[in-house]
Amino acid sequence: MTAYLGINPQLCTGCRACMLACSFTLFGVFNPSKSYIIIERNEEEGTFDIKFTSRCVPCDVCAKYCSHDALVYIERE
Amino acid sequence: MHGYTGKTLIIDLSSGKVTEKEMGTQSYFEYIGGLGINSKILLAEVDPSVDPLGEQNVLIFGVGPLVGTLACTANRTDVTAKSPLTGLLGTTNSGYTWGPELKFCGYDHLVVKGKSQSPVYVFIDNGEVTVLDATHLWGRDSWDTIRTIKNELRDKEISVACIGVGGEKLVKFAAIENGFYGAWGRTGLGAVMGSKNLKAVALRGRKDVTVSDPDGFLESLHEMRERIMSHPTYNPWRQFGSMLAVDIYYALGVLTGYNQKEPLGEDFIESMGRENLLKYKKKSIGCTACPICCAHWVEIEEGPYKGLKLKGIEITSTMDFGARCGIRNLAAIAKATELFQKYGIDCSTAAGSIALATELFQEGIITGKDTDGLELKWGDEPLIFELLRKIAHREGFGDLLAEGPVEMVRRIGKGSQEYLAQNRGLETNSRDPRTRWDVWSFGFLINARGGDHLRVQSPAENLRESAPEGEYFYELSPPEKVVARIDIFHDWKQEIFDFERNTVSIPHMAAWCQDLMNIVNSLGICIRPPVLHSLGPTIYSRLLTTLTGIEFSPEDVRKAGERITNIQRVFNFKAGEKREDMKYGPKFYNMPIKGRRLDKDKVDEVLDEYFRVRNWDPKTALPTAEKLRELNLGKLGSNLAS
């Protein structure tokens, strides 16, 4: 089984649910500055960059809370 | 303390003193947070008779316990002060990132007192507070201000609340801008901020929001998500956002236009209906922790506004400048959005002033001598944009418009008050009480901040049909199986619904949903239908208990909402609003639409029944001593009316 995290920044709405979910899963607190996934906002362009810290080991938590498919967790045999 | 930070930051701009105050558990239990705690602070700190633009008024920013967590839509901040527009309790609510950032800075509430000698802005950096000179920002529009602050602080992720020129010039309906594209728009609190010489509050936080029972909270959170994301309104709201309702209201035949002078015709829906949005919408934008993401990133690719890109086109601005002022071009709504955001003025009252002036001009009550020579016409886009500029700068005729419609007719006289389409100082979104009488319409009379539509909305609306003309106590119910899914307590359901007659009791439902919306605005979540219609006190009590560790029962939550309603009414009474002031604008009683106008005696009968439901004295519209004791508000005194 191989797992991938599919990323599509064009679909990102900037809600940062992924960052909140990440910090809560890792540390049991809500704190975007502790998240391993980072959504950078280009507010005046309506665009968002999706980045990861070096500590991120892809799991499905951020994708689970992404309601607009900017992050999709894919498992393959 | 979990969920809450437990801290209120108090900045006195007169003395420069910055202090922190701990908020006790009992206050959170009784008022939840956000709007509730703000209202409590306002009643305690501000003499309701003060000049709203004087040093004694206090500007309060408050977030609820859910803000900063992953709870759906938990991003809302309520801003509260005495309103310079209505003279009542001013309250205005906005989402996006500012609220969560205040929480991550370590505060639930920010209280700004006094007045700075010169323009300043406040930077709260993870709990460290700095008051900085803002002389160089004074006179700049809100977008320029936000860009400059982000550059100065070398961080584009900082969240900025600021005023534009409108707030500096004390426009009575000035807004506080929430980032580039959001606003605390209603009731003129940008003018309160301007009166304090406070240009902006910038935030950057890195503190934790902790959880008392992580597993329990996650379970409740998943239930919340499931309820919202399976609600029938969820997918349409994702696509159209608030524009969804434009077509629904039009189909019901309840929209009026041109300063609520006549029903809207097909030209309106053809050019301003929701499908038009899709010509400009490029993607969805979300506030923090929202699974709906109902805002639109729009880009105008042709015509006079070619090149304009922003987050915008909502039902409010569409009704304000489309229905009320006569624009028939959704791209022009995007342009209007750019302008009122940059100037920092509330789109609804700005449009209210412009529409009133246009009707008065067309009726010959004012002339070119009053309007700087401008010929006021419906739907004239460049003219409307020029009037927005004049309002924000209080230039010429704009100085009168900047006072808002109620003061305009007082100054103009000559019978102009008969054209007033405002209720208790505020306008609605053109869903007209003469064309559909329901909880929504009745809400204009009892909304604590004045007569708009955003604080008394039923979670059980029947949007397919209206009650027969002449019916004042009831609206039609949705089907019983739909109501069965709505979290309204059994004893309340028995009072509210009559499924044999297919009716909803307006006074009972108004009391229920007014308290419910206070709860929502105190938790820090959104009032839009996928939330308001799918959640209630039961899930809220579970979220609160697991997050904070404070035991809330569903009835505790409901009672907190009721307590907030009661103290808000006490504030308004002390600010001078009497029972007889709780009425619609003259237009709704005197000028018929489709042959219908409101019957004041019948409206007053419903109001009396609402007071009975609340256990308020119908003569004063004040809570009885018994009600105050029941809500642990006995200290407010039994002699309020004396």
Structural account:
The complex is a heterodimer of chains A (77) and B (642). Chain A is 19% helix and 31% strand. Chain A has 77 residues and is an alpha+beta fold. Chain A has a single domain, classed as Alpha-Beta Plaits (2-Layer Sandwich). In chain A, strand 2 and strand 3 form a beta hairpin. Chain A is globular, with a radius of gyration of 12 Å. The model of chain A has no long low-confidence stretch (mean pLDDT 95). Chain B has 642 residues and is α+β, with helices and mostly antiparallel strands. Chain B has three domains: 198 residues, Aldehyde Ferredoxin Oxidoreductase,  A, domain 1; 178 residues, Aldehyde Ferredoxin Oxidoreductase Protein, subunit A, domain 2, CATH 1.10.569; 179 residues, Aldehyde Ferredoxin Oxidoreductase Protein, subunit A, domain 3 (Orthogonal Bundle). Chain B is built from 27 helices and 22 strands. Chain B has a six-stranded mixed beta sheet, sandwiched between helices. In chain B, helix 1 packs across helix 2, helix 2 runs parallel beside helix 24 and helix 23 packs across helix 24. The model of chain B has no long low-confidence stretch (mean pLDDT 97). The interface between A and B is medium-sized, with 27 and 37 residues.
Largest interface: A-B, 27 and 37 residues
- Determine the fraction of residues in helical runs of chain A and give it as a percent range: 10-25%
Per DSSP, the total helix count of chain B is 27
Strand content of chain B: 5-15%
**Any idea of the CATH class of chain A?**
Alpha Beta
| Number of domains as seen in the coordinates of chain B | 3
* Oligomeric state of shown chains: heterodimer
Give the integer mean of the pLDDT values of chain B: 97
> In order across it, which strands form the biggest sheet of chain B?
2-1-6-3-4-5
CATH architecture classification of the largest domain in chain B = 4-Layer Sandwich
Structural class of chain B: alpha+beta
CATH level 1 name of the largest domain in chain B = Alpha Beta
The low-confidence parts of chain B are none
Q: Identify low-pLDDT runs of chain A.
A: none
